[in-house]
Every structure is written in C-alpha cells, then in structure tokens.
C-alpha cells in the first residue's frame, strides 16, 4: 500500500490511481491492497485502472469503485469493495450487476478484504461463470 499520513484528525493514504491522498477508511484499505495486488501480482497496467469512476444509471450519478479498461480503451472489469465486516451477499452482487447495465464489462469482482468473488459475464447469453481466482491481465 502507498504512503500514509495523518491530516488533521484523520489517517490518509496516497492513492496512486487518483494521484492524491484520500481518507483511509476500512473500504479504502481493501481497495488499496486489491489494486496493489492487481498491478504487482496479476500484471494489470496501472494506467488502465481507474478508482471512483462516475457513471449515470437511470438518471442517477453512481460511482464504480474501480474500473479496468482493456487495450481497446473499453471497460473490461468492474470491482466493488466493501469493508471486511460487510458480507459479500447477493445484494452486493446485484449492485455491481446494475453498474454493468451501463458499462457492459466481461468481468465483475467484489471484495471485502477477506473474500473475493470474480465472475466472467457472457453479455449475449446473460450468464455468469464464477471463477476460482482473479485472472492475470494477459488472460482477460
């Protein structure tokens, strides 16, 4: 995880994707560790990852926690983070599926720092294949 600092009465962490310090909440800690894992263990190009990506869903502004772009510049993966105390339930999965109505990605990931769920989406058949691990970038 990147550098930390105490600013006023809150702990902050430097987010290398947003290139600024952000409040170090439990969810943010999960995000920073997972992004580090994607870049350093799964070889995802940092330049193709974006945190807090805004979308419009049914006229409402929403934010995807992290979005991965493909080499073609189109969204490939949405990642949703929860703090470790939040279970990865159907409700959490439904949230990321709603985001996918807009982005139409091939991979959905939810993570709470203790558990990771990853699935490949077949947009044409509207089916999900749950994977046992996070794929390497070159295998997407």
Would you summarize the structure shown here?
By secondary structure, this protein is an alpha+beta fold. It has helices at 26-40, 90-103, and strands at residues 4-7, 10-15, 20-23, 49-57, 60-69, 75-81, 107-111, 116-122, 127-131.
Structure description:
By secondary structure, the chain is an alpha+beta fold. The chain has a single domain, classed as Alpha-Beta Complex (tt1808, chain A), CATH 3.90.1570.30. The protein has helices at residues 26-40, 90-103, and strands spanning 4-7, 10-15, 20-23, 49-57, 60-69, 75-81, 107-111, 116-122, 127-131. Strand 8 and strand 9 (127-131) form a beta hairpin. The chain starts with a strand and ends in a 9-residue tail after the last strand. The model has no long low-confidence stretch (mean pLDDT 94).
Tell me about the biggest sheet?
6 strands, mixed
Helical residue percent? Answer: 10-25%
Number of strands: 9
Shape label? globular
Number of domains: 1
**Arithmetic mean pLDDT:** 94
Residue windows where pLDDT falls under 50 for at least 5 positions: none
Features:
alpha+beta; tt1808, chain A; six-stranded mixed β-sheet; three-stranded antiparallel β-sheet; 2 helices; 9 strands
Secondary structure elements and pairings:
Blueprint lengths: L3 E4 L2 E6 L4 E4 L2 H15 L8 E9 L2 E10 L5 E7 L8 H14 L3 E5 L4 E7 L4 E5 L9
Parallel strand pairs: 6-7
Antiparallel strand pairs: 1-2, 2-3, 4-5, 5-6, 7-8, 8-9
């Amino acid at each position: 995880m990147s550098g930390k600092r105490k600013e006023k009465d809150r702990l902050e962490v430097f987010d290398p994707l947003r290139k600024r310090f952000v409040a170090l909440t439990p969810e943010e800690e999960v995000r920073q560790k997972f992004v580090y894992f994607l870049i350093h263990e799964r070889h995802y190009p940092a330049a193709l990852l974006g945190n807090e990506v805004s979308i419009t869903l049914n006229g409402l502004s929403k934010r995807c926690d992290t979005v991965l772009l493909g080499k073609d510049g189109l969204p490939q993966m949405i990642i949703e983070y929860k703090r470790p105390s939040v279970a990865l339930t159907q409700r959490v999965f439904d949230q990321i599926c709603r985001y996918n109505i807009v982005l139409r990605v091939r991979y959905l990931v939810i993570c709470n720092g203790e558990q990771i769920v990853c699935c490949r989406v077949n947009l044409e058949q509207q089916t999900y294949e749950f994977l046992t691990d996070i794929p390497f970038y070159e295998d997407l």
